[in-house]
Amino acid sequence: MIYILASMTSNLNQLVNHVQRSLVMVHNGRFGVGTGIFWRLGGYILTNQHVLGRKKRLRVTLNDGREVAARLVERAPAIDLALLQVELPDTPAALIADSRVAKVGQIVLAVGHPWGQRGVVTAGIISGLGNATTHRKGEKIPIIRSDVTLAPGNSGGPLVNAAGGVIGINTMIVGGDLGVAIPSHVAEDFVRDALGERVGVVV
Amino acid sequence: MLEFQFLFKLLSGICKIRPERQIIILLFLEELLMSNNPLFELSEAMVAAVTKAGASTVTVDARRRIPASGIAYAPDLILTASHVVERDDDISVTLPEGSKLAARLAGRDPGSDLALLRLETNAVTAQPAPGEASVGQLVLALGRPGTDGIQASLGVISAIGGPVHTGRGGLLESYMRTDAIPYPGFSGGPLVDAAGQVLGINTSGLAHGASLAIPVSLAWQVAETLAKHGRVRRGYLGIRSQPVEIPAAQQKVLGREQASGLLIISVEKRSPAENGGLLVGDIIVAIEEHLVADPDELFAALVGEAVGVPTPIEVLRGGQPQKLTVTIGERK
Questions:
Q1: Full-prediction pTM beyond 0.90?
Q2: Distance (Å) of CA B27 to CA B19, B21, B102
Q3: In this prediction, does ipTM exceed 0.90?
Q4: Do residues A64 and A122 share a domain?
Q5: N or C: which end of chain A has fewer CB within 10 A?
Q6: Beta-carbon-side half-sphere exposure of residue B258 (alpha carbons within 13 Å)
Q7: Residues A118 and A186 in one domain
């Protein structure tokens, strides 16, 4: 029994280290900091739109400590997502999991920079899968609820499953509840649209 | 273990590979990361637990605010929290598969904050966990407060306490506290173990809004009584009392070692106690063969079965033991 706990802890540790490599801190003077994640190769970073405010250029700090300039590629205020890009070779992209097969009860980790503290990890499970109505247009969007503790600064950070795959982007788009994330398949659709890649119907 | 570490090393290297090849490798790696990973196994086990217990967790709509939750005690009986059943009629239950059915109140026990609903259906009955819960045990709190499906939060059993008076004339022999988040509408839903077996019923209606769980053994016992009689009867004497020390000399007269008893400090008019001849100043030392040393023990002896039954009560009066017979009344 003790062995299982020890090996789980070790796995957790490796998983967290892996995710933290792809993590960035997004600076916005007025709005403080948020979290972002290298979603794919080419220096593409996904974060929350509200972290940016109206800025189109801002600074991000990588996990290795480098601070670089990032430009806005596309934003989707309705789902509170924004795609940024940094001009750097070999940025460590995260492993993206398919959130369409996410289930209530699965272990999840939130990694981010709550209150500006770097790379903080909180753990929990998926509490519920459902829809939320957005503040702005009253649109219904799918969301993942989790019981992980989030704080300002976690916004835009990844929600990761037990295999280290990102299944959602933590956000504060729908107030009140703790721990709401935009599912990775919604985020991936946004990224594909932003990069003009979406062809045909995704089945 | 090594394998897991190795996989992440591979993952770290992957960003140097051409994008179109990456996808295939990533999919392959994800598969590997799921196998041989105790964390993922635990994750899947919890999904299974949620699925299993979730099949017995229903929506209970019987109040003005958001609906609450309930658990199938029997195919046609739903156990829920009494405080979420604000009205006695126009109660509806939504089953996991989505059908909404009218339900009748079969009975309630505000003392343990439990209510039983009857409806015509064939619900999947919940499985109670065998044995006692222990502190540190992994638990899931489940609820189905809306149409978005089952909801769950994870935690451990933080404390097991009791007995405690609930302020509604009830005495919980034991209760559980957990650090699993009680989301709105979780009252009446189950607290389950890692195998999806029910450990208790969650409620925030017993301790001034604080969330606790009623152990399943007690909850099932109450449900059985409610199914049969529609209410839980509790005995009533009509006295106020406080524990006092029994001096050694009087213990000798009693013929046993009993360090304390209950001093009667008031007797209500026309109460079972007055009718049975109990007086202010008497020290109750035993009811039937149960020794009584504090008010909780007296409370525990006044069970529903005792109502209406002439019961021998032993007191110390003027230092001398005396046996009286009191017919226990019913607490209203």
A1: no
A2: 13, 10, 48
A3: no
A4: no
A5: C
A6: 24
A7: yes
